[in-house]
Amino acid sequence: MPNQARRSVVIGSATALASPWLHAQAYPSRPVRIIVPTTPGGGYDNLGRLVAERLSPELGVGVVVENRTGGGTLVGTQVAAAAAPDGYTLVVGGLANMALNAGLYKNPQYNPATDFVPIALVASFSYCLVARRDLPQSTLPELLAYARANPGKLNMATGGTGSGQHVAAVMLRRLGNIQMVEIPYKGAQAAYTDLVGGRVDLFFDNTTTAQPLIEAGRIKAIATSGSQRDKSLAAVPTAIEAGLAGMVLESWLGIFAPARTPPAAVSRLREAMTRVVAQPDLRKRLEDGGWRMLDQDAASTEQFVRAEAERWPTFLREAGISGE
Question: Structurally, what CATH architecture does the domain formed by 32-125+251-319 represent?
């Protein structure tokens, strides 16, 4: 074989062998989008934008947020699941779309356990059981004792079917072995209007939203649903501390990529997210807003997400809760 031809074969072979490495090193070479499966505003959107702003300089490319709404968090997550697994489409994932939807819908068109890979969990928040300020009962044991002795006398505002507010209310009723009248509301604002006005007895809402009304004395806190006390409501016991075993519900959020995203891209994203989550200004902003930072390595994150994806659909089915 002529020397020139031999050199061409060698160079071609070397290029072919190096190709995966070259592609891995090139990622990312264009903008990355983060799908937010909710409307602007709210936890998913706020977290997505905070992350996008800080992830962009870490990756060296633009990171854009795209709100894809419909069906709660269903439509946007379906779009992300169907996207090319190339590292250029990410999605804000949390308790709702990575755990609850699998139990709420017969065919959500994606499986959170097999269609996504977690890049990083960022933070979580608990829920707080609040009451009208003139409710005679002020502790969880008092409340449960009264409810058991007086079935159906207490009422509770709930959010949309399968929302965190709704799931928390169902958990309280089932674990506490009590009967209450559930009053559905389309949003927290309407529920608070009636709670502050004394027309509703109880509401289980996200702690960050409830906190200002609690501090203003317009409603009172009974217990929180976290695995540990909320820093912003340090005087309020968790439901477990108050004696209700198993009453743990935390809404967590993070960044996910479609399954089969190249390992090199997943690794690059995880490294970048580790630096993003470590930024003091990001942590302070979230913690001041009532969030608890989730500092977990990749293995712990994957294990946690799998456990949540198994736990909550089972709970929803047993409780007879459906989004359809």
Answer: 3-Layer(aba) Sandwich (3.40)
